[in-house]
Amino acid sequence: MAQGNRKTEDRPEEQGRVPPELERQINENLRRLYKQTLEEEVPDHLQKLLERLRKQDEDEQDQDKDRVR
Amino acid sequence: MNGSTQSSRSAKDELVEHVPALRAFALSLSRNAATADDLVQETILKAWTNIDKFREGTNLRSWLFTILRNTYYSSRRKLTREVRDTDGIHAAGLAQKPDHDGRLALNDFASAFAQLPDEQREALILVGASGFSYEEAAETCGCAVGTIKSRANRGRQRLAELMKLASNDELEMTDRATMAVMTAQPASKG
């Protein structure tokens, strides 16, 4: 697979990384952004979805057990 | 049947633990809270019904993230451009040095971040926030490691531009006060 555009990588500003301090700041901000959602409580409808799926599985397993007997 | 049922069940049990991370990743892609949760919902459903495709012992989070991003990109192909301008994200007023408590408000960063192209946001969130290695991110996105690296680099450069901290020159020319404020970051570890 080709590694992107040759000419893009030849341009000096595309080659370099940002200064390490800046990269650190950016990562810090990215983590904070990400963490905000990470620490939220999982919304009700998603929890209920998982419960519903689990219940479905249990019901199917019970049906399987009955069939085996 | 017992063997595969056992391993499928443990992945399903583990799934709930990844929901917060999925939500965070979804939000970085969709930039809209409602869409993000729709994405997560669809991902959970797809993962659950296709759990037999997950190879026990491999990275479940990576597998889930892959489902989510694929769902995002295919839904985006169907949508119009209106999703670009979500949650009243304003580009104006970004290019200001911090003037209050010594940090660029998270809002400003979020606004800048939202302006990056999808692939750059994705790469940055994976390697910069979700704790993925470049290799894991490459696998999740179905591309080469070099591609992830260049997307992440371009994303950071673009962010720096947007936050007006573009180049070394600008950094040096920044006045002392701002310099002090910008480097006075609390050394908070995740």
Description:
The complex is a heterodimer of chains A (69) and B (190). With 69 residues, chain A is mainly alpha-helical. Chain A contains 4 helices and no strands. Chain A has helices at 6-10, 12-15, 20-38, 44-68. Chain B has 190 residues and is an all-alpha fold. Chain B has helices at residues 2-15, 19-30, 33-49, 60-78, 106-114, 118-129, 134-141, 145-162, 168-173, 176-183. The radius of gyration of chain B is 19 Å and the shape is globular. Chains A and B meet through α3 and α4 of A and α1, α2, α3, α5 and α6 of B.
Counting DSSP E segments of at least 2 residues, the number of strands of chain A comes to 0
Q: What is the ordering of alpha helices and beta strands of chain A?
A: HHHH
Q: What is the count of DSSP helices of chain B, taking H or I runs of 4+ residues? A: 10
Radius of gyration of chain B: 19 Å
The biggest sheet of chain B amounts to: none
Rg of chain A:
25 Å
Helix content of chain B: 55-70%
* Class from secondary-structure proportions of chain B: mainly alpha
Sum up the structure in keywords.
heterodimer, A: mainly alpha, 77% helix, elongated, B: 190 residues, mainly alpha, 10 helices, globular
Quick take:
The complex is a heterodimer of chains A (69) and B (190). Chain A is mostly helical and 69 residues long.
Layout of helices and strands:
The complex is a heterodimer of chains A (69) and B (190).
Chain A lengths: L5 H5 L1 H4 L4 H19 L5 H25 L1
Chain B lengths: L1 H14 L3 H12 L2 H17 L10 H19 L27 H9 L3 H12 L4 H8 L3 H18 L5 H6 L2 H8 L7
